[in-house]
């Protein structure tokens, strides 16, 4: 058995075999490459120009040491954020929409058919072009805001929802009565159907949730997602706003133009555009009982109307076989196009592609809003049918064409917006994200009073209101002086008109001079001179009292 001294000696280690010492805290760690260190000064300058936050703060001129240090850290963070934003440009899927371009002078893009497009694109994109043959009358289609789901409504009562990319049916109903319009609500869980007499709301399983009996014989519907308002109009010509979050009927407006012929919304300011049989388009807000603007757009009944995403241009097609483009900011006509037969439906994509449905044909125009085009971008012929509705799918190069025999999904290169805001509408949102988006939308819900022609009025100072208030105050002061003048000319009643009081007012009042009495006498003299036609020139309040009285 070894002695304690031996065991203790063996436990000790020599300095040569000891563990290496830790580096001191003062030694510098190797720095990792960042967006600032990997760029040249020229690249940093260009990034600051595009993504910067204004001019740089001169921290050297600040005497406070703590404040100067905080500002330097803040400027460093700003520079790093601009450099990272410049690096993130490579992650953007597209810098712009990919339109079809003709190679030679003799080639035309409108000669390219759907079969040629499907042969040229990849397999996943080619599967987006399909056709559904359904035998329940003219159909109406609507895509959800994120572009994932599709709802179809047949004239003879057939209603179906589906995830059109996966080909999965959500629900399918046979209502057995006329269906005039279908519309998604705030998400893909609820949709509204305008049936023969009332408007019904169904969930994603096809279960009837509500029956809106105040909306009678509705022909057109529009949903305002930021206000949670369902706007409907029927054969009676009454425009009604229903709050889908509280169930209250906000307002009911009488258009006085009979049954409508078309209806759409301006997504910029939530104004409803309604087309009428007398060739006019009226702009409505739930805050006024009369139309905000009435525009004469066609020489015949308006057949279709649509507004672009920016809210600056409106296209209206009428029975006179004309399609007119208007600038909503000036309410003037910009361009006019001819259609072989009266157009039945219009729609505009997020990139500005205008789709026109007339007869069994679909014509697409590129950049037709700002400049006059001589030839269309693409065309499509749906043989033996009648086009009833056209809708572009959000964030995808797909156009949904509803016709009398069913539904056709057309591939239109360049029609979809490639970049989306995930905090606004996310096509790839999870179930949890969609639930949070619904709660956030209810918390940030806008009031109907905020629907105005100019949505930028929020947060501005109403100078015109202050001027009107000043004018009202001056008119009120003038009215009071006039009433006081007329009151002095009459005898007072209710026991104050005795002989003694009249004598005191007549004699004693002449020696008392106050500002009010002088104004009244001056107004009395001016009114007498105006009635006699005498013109007097005022020399000021100080010299007018020495003027000789006539």
Describe what you observe in this structure.
The chain is an alpha+beta fold and 550 residues long. It has helices spanning 4-11, 41-51, 65-87, 114-120, 123-126, 431-443, 463-489, 499-507, 515-532, and strands at residues 131-133, 139-143, 149-154, 158-163, 168-174, 181-184, 190-194, 199-203, 208-212, 218-224, 229-234, 238-243, 249-254, 262-266, 271-275, 280-284, 293-296, 302-307, 313-318, 322-327, 332-338, 345-348, 354-358, 361-365, 378-381, 387-392, 398-403, 406-411. Helix content is 22%, strand content 27%. The model is unreliable at 1-28 (pLDDT under 50). A four-stranded antiparallel β-sheet has the order 1-28-27-26. It has a four-stranded antiparallel β-sheet with strand order 2-3-4-5, with no helix packed on it. The protein contains nine helices and 28 strands. Helix 2 (41-51) packs across helix 3 (65-87) and helix 7 packs across helix 9.
Strand portion: 25-35%
Distance between the termini: 145 Å
Mean pLDDT: 86
Largest sheet: 4 strands, antiparallel
Structure class = alpha+beta
**Tally of helical segments:** 9
The proportion of residues forming helix, as a percent range, comes to: 10-25%
CA gyration radius, whole angstroms: 37 Å
User: Could you give the order of strands across the largest sheet?
Assistant: 1-28-27-26
Uncertain runs with pLDDT below 50, 5 residues or more? 1-28
Tally the beta strands.
28
* Shape by Cα distribution: extended
């Amino acid at each position: 058995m070894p002695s304690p001294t031996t065991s203790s000696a063996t436990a000790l280690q020599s300095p040569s075999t000891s563990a290496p010492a830790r580096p001191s805290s003062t030694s510098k760690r190797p720095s990792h490459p960042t967006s600032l260190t990997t760029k040249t000064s020229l690249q940093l300058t260009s990034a600051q120009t595009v993504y910067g936050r204004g001019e740089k703060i001169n921290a050297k001129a600040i005497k406070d040491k703590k404040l100067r240090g905080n500002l330097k850290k803040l400027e460093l963070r700003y520079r790093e954020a601009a450099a990272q934003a410049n690096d993130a440009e490579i992650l953007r899927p597209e810098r712009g929409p990919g339109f079809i371009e003709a190679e030679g002078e003799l080639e035309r893009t409108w000669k390219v058919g759907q079969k040629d497009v499907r042969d040229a694109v990849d397999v996943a994109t080619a599967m987006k072009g399909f056709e559904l043959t359904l035998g329940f009358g003219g159909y109406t289609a609507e895509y959800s805001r994120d572009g994932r789901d599709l709802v179809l409504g047949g004239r003879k009562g057939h209603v179906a929802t589906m995830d059109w990319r996966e080909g999965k049916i959500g629900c399918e109903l046979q209502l057995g009565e006329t269906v005039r319009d279908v519309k998604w609500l705030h998400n893909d869980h609820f949709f509204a159907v305008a049936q023969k007499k009332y408007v019904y709301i169904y969930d994603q399983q096809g279960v009837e949730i509500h029956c809106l009996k105040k909306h009678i014989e509705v022909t057109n519907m529009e949903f305002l997602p930021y206000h949670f308002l369902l706007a409907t109009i029927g054969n009676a010509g009454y425009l009604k706003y229903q709050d889908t979050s509280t169930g209250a009927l906000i307002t009911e407006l009488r258009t006085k133009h009979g049954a409508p012929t078309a209806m759409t919304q301006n997504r910029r300011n939530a104004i409803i555009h309604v087309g009428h049989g007398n060739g006019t388009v009226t702009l409505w807000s739930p805050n006024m009982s009369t139309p905000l603007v009435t525009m004469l757009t066609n020489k015949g009944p308006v057949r279709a109307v649509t507004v672009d995403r920016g809210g600056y241009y409106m296209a209206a097609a009428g029975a006179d076989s004309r399609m007119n483009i208007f600038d909503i900011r000036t309410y003037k006509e910009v361009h006019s196009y001819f259609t072989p037969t009266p157009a039945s439906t219009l729609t505009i994509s997020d990139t500005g592609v205008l789709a026109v449905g007339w007869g069994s044909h679909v014509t697409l125009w590129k950049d037709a809003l700002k400049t006059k085009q001589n030839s269309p971008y693409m065309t499509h012929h749906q043989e033996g049918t009648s086009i009833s509705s056209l809708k572009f799918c959000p964030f995808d190069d797909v156009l949904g064409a509803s016709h009398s025999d069913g539904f056709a999904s057309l591939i239109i290169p360049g029609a979809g917006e490639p970049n989306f805001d995930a905090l606004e509408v996310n096509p790839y949102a999870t179930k949890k994200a969609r639930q949070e988006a619904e709660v956030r939308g209810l918390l940030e819900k806008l009031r109907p009073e905020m629907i105005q022609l100019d949505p930028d009025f929020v947060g501005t100072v109403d100078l015109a209101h202050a001027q009107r208030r000043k004018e009202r105050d001056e008119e009120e002061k003038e009215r009071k002086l006039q009433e006081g003048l007329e009151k002095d000319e009459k005898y007072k009643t209710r026991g104050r008109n005795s002989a003694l009081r009249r004598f005191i007012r007549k004699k004693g009042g002449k020696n008392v001079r106050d500002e009010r009495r002088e104004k009244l006498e001056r107004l009395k003299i001016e009114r007498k001179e105006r009635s006699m036609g005498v013109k007097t020139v005022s020399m000021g309040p100080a010299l007018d009292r020495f003027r000789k009285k006539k």
